[in-house]
Please model this.
Amino acid sequence: MAVLTPDILERFQAGFDRAVSAQIPEANAMTLATVDPDGRPAARTVLLKGFDLDGFVFYTNLGSRKGQHLAHTPEASAVFWWRENEEQVLIDGSVRPVTEAEADEYFASRPRGSQIGAWASKQSTHLSSRETLLEAVKETEARFEGQAVPRPPHWSGFRIQPRRIEFWYGKPYRLHERICYTVEDGHWMSESLFP
Model:
């Protein structure tokens, strides 16, 4: 898998910065699509927590639906839709786990309540009542009272390493501008696409 080129990364950074400047809520929100072992797609919104030449990073409970999908089929698509700016970024690629050090560093930066929640929630599994979750939170708070909350072994991150990334810019009369980058023989190629 080829790393992103600086110009691709700069194009993403520019769009992301425009979204932040426009005060678009959750500018780092992306729709993430995965497939289950039977090839059935599933999508949900997650938050981008980092990006660089190696790809786009998000974190999750590894036992969650998406975590199980990615363990079986480490492929994903992601879409950023910055509606107010009429911009989209579409990403397809393979997915690999972040390093333990990266996961530890990001987990340590989270609010304590979110750290507690990562231990208390059995994400994507049946919950009999809200009280059951709140009781698990209370028990976890007591367990780690007066100490730092370590990263749970079932919680980590993934990096999408793109093989295709498309930048979509809305234009009048649906004559949108689409710039698509794809990896061919280990090298990035770019082309314009009809809207």
